[in-house]
Design a protein that fits this description.
Elements (H helix, E strand, L loop, with lengths): L5 H4 L3 H4 L3 E5 L10 E4 L2 H4 L7 E5 L9 H13 L4 E5 L9 H10 L3 E4 L5 H18 L8 H13 L6 H10 L9 E8 L5 H10 L3 E7 L2 E8 L11 H12 L5 E9 L4 H20 L12 E4 L4 H6 L4 H25 L4 H10 L4 H8 L3 H15 L6 H19 L13
Parallel strand pairs: 2-3, 3-4, 4-5, 9-10
Antiparallel strand pairs: 1-5, 6-8, 6-9, 7-8
Helix pairs in contact: 4-5, 6-7, 7-11, 9-10, 13-17, 14-16, 14-17, 15-16
């Protein structure tokens, strides 16, 4: 069966929901699409092998000059990209004329996406269709190999119609046999086309099983860990997985870890942890981080570390923007007015302080300031807000408002690169 074409990708529901407008490359709509990948423009071309449809929110185009934009389009065409789809109206108010002109000149299909749809929905729907198309065209006697593993992980992450015997049989074909009492944890890695980072982490864990597949720019994995912690091994399996990825992952990668589920809890639990990892990755690449990351290291986070972000953006940033802005203004208005008139970092200081149990030592270390400077900031915050930061009745509201401020203020400004949408 022929490969999925760009014309067919445009008929998928999540793609049609974006209100796509074809601005260039109509003659190339029937070219095959090998994969759908999302990335910021300053790194996108470097991840392509040819045949990919690239999605971007256009943030990297906003400050680029005309020649940089033209060169980027040329690089995509030189990499034999299937097309470029750019979200317009949020980070990028409109498609730059030189991007349209260059795309027409080199024959690169260029799409303007006028409505916000989480890129993860588009990539999962499209890539699942691509994998399914590839499998349906094979002879039944041909081995499934890595494509089978990718198809299973995609089905689980997309919560396709499955049943437990089917999932277990397909997992067994891939050599994945989680035993009784094991815990499963989903992992999503962005910024690499190699599964080696997962393999290194599994070796560091010792005794862990893994189901993993590498896609262009991303790796999705399901780890199985023994249910009983061993001497020297943290009892919290999520923290254990995060720690090994901090060692195993290269600088520049983003790793998101789902929650731990019982292997015997049924395939829906397998799906839950993979979906949690995917959502956490989207958030990690969409919302600016609450605190500084480790210099020259990977960004490793988890679904529970991003619980506030997940709840605040459920349904998308744009759908919640007005509500979140009202929460921020109501709760933190005096701080915002102060920051508008003075060079300060009070809202961020407040959030880091609350996230770390109001520990002055930990907060000062994370913000790289002295304790005396921190105390001065905290006193200023309390004076402006007219309240005590440590009041238990206020902790939830203050933390929610500080997180909401970060979400509505800087969606797409995080420095980690990659996806810039909220699932």
């Amino acid at each position: 069966m022929p490969a999925l074409t760009l014309r067919e990708v445009l008929t998928l529901d999540p793609v049609r929901a974006t209100g796509p407008e074809l601005l260039a490359g109509e003659q190339a709509l029937d070219r095959p699409v090998r994969w759908v990948h999302s990335s910021e423009v300053y790194e996108g071309a470097n991840f392509l092998d040819g045949g990919e449809l690239l999605l971007t929110n256009g943030f990297g185009l906003t400050d680029a000059d005309e020649e940089v934009r033209r060169r980027y389009v040329r690089e995509l065409a030189a990499r034999a990209a299937a097309g470029l789809a750019v979200e317009v109206g949020r980070s990028l108010p409109h498609m730059p004329a030189e991007v349209i002109d260059e795309a027409r000149r080199v024959g690169l299909p260029l799409l303007a996406l006028h409505r916000v749809v989480p890129f993860v929905r588009i990539t999962e729907a499209a890539n699942r269709a691509i994998v399914a198309r590839g499998l349906s065209g094979r002879s039944v006697v041909r081995p499934w190999g890595d494509d089978h593993t990718a198809a299973l992980l995609a089905d689980l992450a997309d919560r396709a119609a499955l049943n437990q015997p089917e999932v277990e049989a397909r997992a067994a074909l891939a050599g994945f046999h989680p035993g009784p009492g094991t815990r499963l944890i989903g992992v999503s890695v962005h910024g690499t086309r190699e599964a080696g980072v997962v393999d290194r982490a599994v070796r560091l864990l010792g005794g862990a099983g893994v189901l993993r597949a590498a896609f262009p720019g991303d790796v999705l994995a399901l780890l199985s860990l023994p249910g009983v912690s061993r001497p020297g091994r943290p009892g919290d399996p999520v923290k254990a997985v995060q720690e090994v990825f901090r060692t195993a992952a290269e600088p520049g990668l983003t790793v998101a870890v789902g929650h731990a589920v019982a292997a015997g809890g049924g395939w829906l639990r397998w799906s839950d942890t993979l979906r949690a990892a995917r959502t956490a990755l989207e958030l990690a690449l969409t919302v600016p981080p609450a605190e500084p990351g480790v210099p020259d290291g990977p960004l490793v986070t988890s679904s529970r570390a991003l619980a506030w972000e997940r709840e605040l953006t459920r349904g998308g940033v744009d759908a919640n923007r007005e509500r979140l802005a009202a929460l921020v203004q109501h709760t933190l208005g005096p701080l915002l007015e102060w920051e508008a008139a003075h060079a300060s970092d009070l809202v961020r200081t407040l959030e880091v302080h609350l996230r770390h149990g109001c520990s002055p030592t930990r907060t000062a270390a994370l913000l790289h300031i002295g304790r005396q400077s921190l105390y001065q900031r905290l006193e200023r915050i309390e004076s402006l807000l007219g309240l005590e930061i440590g009041d238990p009745d206020l902790l939830g509201e203050l933390l929610a408002a500080a997180c909401a401020h970060r979400v509505v203020r800087g969606t797409g400004t995080a420095s980690v690169g990659g996806l810039r949408t909220v699932a």
